[in-house]
Design goal:
The protein contains eleven helices and 18 strands. The chain is of the alpha+beta class.
């Protein structure tokens, strides 16, 4: 068993991975990519390091984000044999490559094309749809690097990005859903239940894991993600975001890592997405099956920490220790939905401790649930 894992990135996903690793007697450290310093476990320490030290100390190297900086250290690390899942990071860090992979596997996604010059936008509006979502090929998240384009809004896309963007049809969907699945080195797989997501201004606001999904929809999603995991010989957790449409599921994006929409599993699953990811990476067995409880995950965006959250029954708070600023994810709250009366009381208590934006999101989730 490999005892040490390094994650590229110093954010909250790595922090929660380190927490999960401690329960498995694993040393999970993070690499601050800006300072090129090691952050041990869940501490706030920063340690100087070198390429040779990293390769000797960490038999397994992965990442908490797919958009990695093009620095000499990062490039050496992803070329090393310690780097997990090189094919997956290569494809999912580039929307052109990701879409091409999905097309090759026959997995449904929104009709799309590469935009190499302004005339391509006009052709896409004629050939694909009269309203397009234009996205940068590399980078961009939480709504950044995306534009809604029609014939009256052609000038929104910066001219200097031509050749670095794709355009896809704007999809009319019933729901946004996502699936988290884990695959071991020998090809065994386990999937969490599909969750429903609500995005606002490009940011995930909440996820609902009802844990009583339509069996055929769950099977369809698992078949799609399973084909991707096997094609890439993937090890660990991958998330797949989809639109549910009248014609079935369309894959929107893939993430070769733990994912915001899987945070509910910290309260609602025997073994959460972080533990599943680490188990697969270090060749520990995945569970054959799990017991789940329905859960609501509410993202905390740009707000201040409220100690009163910790007094509420049925609520689990995860705070990331970041300086709040607009649009920044600073924590999340999980609420158990196993008992409707307790959940309702929990949300009532929480409502008075939230700002107007978060109260609105909690209210939307509450109306969706009850």
């Amino acid at each position: 068993m490999k005892q040490a894992v390094l994650l590229l990135g110093g954010g909250q996903l790595g922090l929660m991975m380190a927490e999960a690793g401690a329960q498995l007697a694993l040393h999970v450290d993070r690499l601050d990519l800006a300072q090129e310093q090691i952050i041990p476990g869940t501490s706030g320490l920063r340690l100087q390091t070198s390429l040779a030290q990293i390769l000797q100390q960490y038999p397994v190297i992965s990442a908490e984000l797919e958009h990695l900086p093009d620095t000499p250290l990062v490039q050496e690390l992803i070329r090393s044999p310690n780097w997990a899942n090189p094919a997956a990071f290569q494809h999912t860090a580039d929307r052109f490559s990701e879409k091409t992979l999905l097309d090759r596997l026959g997995i449904a996604t929104a009709p799309w094309c590469l935009i190499a010059q302004p005339a391509d936008l006009q052709r896409a509006l004629a050939d694909i749809a009269d309203e397009l979502v234009v996205k940068v090929i590399r980078g961009g998240y939480d709504g950044r690097g995306q534009w809604m384009v029609d014939t009256s809004r052609l000038d929104q896309v910066p001219a200097e990005l031509m050749g670095q963007i794709i355009a896809e049809q704007k999809i009319t969907f019933r729901r946004e859903v996502s699936l988290v699945g884990a695959r071991s080195r020998d090809g065994k797989k386990i999937y969490l239940p599909l969750v429903e997501n609500l995005h606002d201004q490009g940011i995930l606001r909440y996820s609902i894991a009802r844990c009583t999904n339509d069996a055929s929809l769950q099977a369809s999603a698992e078949a799609m993600l399973g084909a991707i995991l096997d094609e890439l010989k993937y090890i660990g957790v991958m998330a797949m975001e989809c639109f549910e449409t009248d014609q079935g599921l369309l894959v929107n994006e893939l993430a070769p890592r733990v994912h915001n929409s899987g945070h509910w599993s910290q309260l609602g699953a025997e073994h959460d997405q972080f533990a599943l990811h680490l188990r697969a990476l270090v060749d520990l067995p995945l569970p054959r099956q799990q017991i789940y409880q329905p859960t609501l995950m509410l993202n905390l965006i740009g707000c201040e920490f409220q100690p009163g959250w910790l007094e509420i029954t049925g609520l689990q708070c995860h705070w990331y220790g970041k300086e709040p600023r607009p649009g920044r994810k600073v924590g999340h709250i999980n609420i158990s939905l196993a008992d409707a009366a307790i959940a309702q009381a929990c949300m009532t208590s929480l409502d008075s401790l939230l700002d107007a934006t978060h109260r609105e999101m909690l209210g939307r989730a509450r109306r969706q649930l009850f």
